[in-house]
Here is the input.
Amino acid sequence: MFHWLEQRPFFFAVMLFLTIAFAGVIEILPDFAKASQPLVGKKPFTVLQLAGKQVYIKDSCNACHSQLIRPFKSETDRYGMYSLSGEYAYDRPFLWGSKRTGPDLHRIGNYRTTDWHENHMMAPADVVPGSIMPKYPHMFTNMADIATAYANANTQKSVFGVPYDTDGMPKLGSWADAEAAAKEEAKSIAADMKNQSVKDMVAKGEVPEIVALIAYLNSLK
Amino acid sequence: MQSNAQLEYDYSIVKAFTFTTILFGIIGMTVGVILAFQLAFPELSNLAGEYGTFGRLRPIHTNGVAFGFTLSGIFATWYYVGQRTLKMSLKESKFLMTVAKLHFALYFITILLAVVTLLMGITTSKEYAELEWPLDILVVIWWVLWGVAMFGMIGMRRERTIYVSTWYYMSSFLAVAMLFLFNNMEVPTMFFAGDAPSSAMHSISMYAGTNDALVQWWYGHNAVAFVFTTPIIGMIYYFLPKESGQNIFSYKLSVLAFWGLMFVYLWAGGHHLIYSTVPDWMQTMGSAMSIVLILPSWGSAINMLLTMKGEWQQLQSSPLIKFMIMASTFYMLSTIEGPIQAIKSVNAIAHFTDWIPGHVHDGVLGWVGFMIMASLFHMAPRIFKRELYSKSLMETQFWLQTVGIVLYFTSMWIAGITQGMMWRAYDDYGSLLYSFIDTVTVLQPYYTLRAVGGLFYLVGFLIFAYNMFRTATSGRKLDKEPANASPMAS
Here is the structure.
């Protein structure tokens, strides 16, 4: 049979494709609907948090930090409750990571504060002696992309039915509403910060990357 | 059908891809060495502001070596092996020649754009699928062009039976097409921006959370399979028998190993998600199938080693044979190491540690890198019609790089297992023994050693590039094509 196939490239390619695709059909397809149910009470990200998530992605924080706590005592003691599938239902893309050069961040919002992040992102080794994490001073001067974060949230709402603008869930509204809300939320973050230029920018209605990133990190609980 | 006339093959595309193999190899590996030194000496992370941090550079390294260096090597060898084993020349078809040229041009542009966008931080965050949607569309176009060229060439063949190497190239084309399409399903957000001035480059994944992870690692693992494994096996099936003048040991073994690999490989993606929130049966399936994977992997490798039966003295006389046999050996090491890491209890320690990059690198440096360089060395006298420039440089390169790889994976084994054990260590009172930072600072010597190993490999690669350049420009001219062993000046 194999010799027959090897002389007929068309049938060879068809057989080959079926063989390759088989595992995906069995493994990937059946579980899709079941796994994407959100945990009860899980809220989608606000626009500011999404902008922060985009900063996280832009600088590939996920290259060194995981967001997946495995069900071992040594991990739950260190990072908190092990991760559940339903907690990720609004995570597009997922950010589990595959390498812990630094610690897991899935519940960092439970044990780190705004001012801790502010100091740490500016100079990690000053806060954690021995840290090999790079410094991120550019996050204090680059502006977060609130407009793209709004487009992101609106895509989630329109295409994937993420329940923005419903009872007890974050409001989205029009771009003007969302922009105003994000700037308000930025003010509440900046109130806990000490960097004067960041405070000034936020007061003027600008949102530096660091503010959005902290909003995102604080939301990871 | 002209039967006896000597075919004149066209090597212009082969040469173009050979050039990009070397170019992107230098870029990707240099960035890799920088990253390695950054982990050992973190001050190096802040030399170029936001563009020099580990996070920004890492995707350039992975994409640079996987889709720059390796894919170029795959395309270069395909257009060489394809023409020769199918007994057709690209000269015979203007159409296919145009397709191949377009394939090269679009590919080259895409990789350059990839470097620029990744440096700017435009990424989807999914490993080995970082490129944003406009670049993804470009990738699909030139991937299809490669397919058109491949099946066009097969359609024009004079040799009725398709050789093993072509099976493997075909499998890469089909599998990567499927994986890439499904994993990069994404919605550009600009269409839902309302009147917000949003970025046109941004998109979000079609899948959320656990599903996204599942598709990503089904892709991520098998991108490894069908970029770093199958086409490289295709290369060794052609270049080892050609260079050594030996027949492949067993046709039956090659059939068994091929179809076995095709069936089993895709299942194994689940081993990236052990103890995560994907369903348990998938994790177990991924783990079990990874063990099964040893069979077809070693099947190919053993077929290669037995091909050299009775001809082992060639290992002494030819550095090219040395590269290929070492590649095959590293393939065996890597494909036994992977299944070990996929065992659940081992994975509990190994996952998230440096043992994983260690495993990846004994595969890519030892197997993929050596095999591609050996293939390029073998092709050089045939496409440039010149003798290889220097055998002694090849020897130097071989040993430098081999030592580099050994330094790399041994230091990462130690680092990974050390860190994995420290994370889970408790004191007598039931408290965690180490804070996280303790498990980072302890790795400094191993990170240094790894960086030095990587540097050795990079220097070896630069020697390779120089040797290839001198071969193309000033090697002694050959008046007829060498049959087997590639001629080389001492």
The two ends of chain A are 57 Å apart (CA to CA). Chain A is about 50% helix and 0% strand. Chain A touches chain B through 88 residues (CB under 8 Å). Chain A has two domains: 2-30, 47-219.
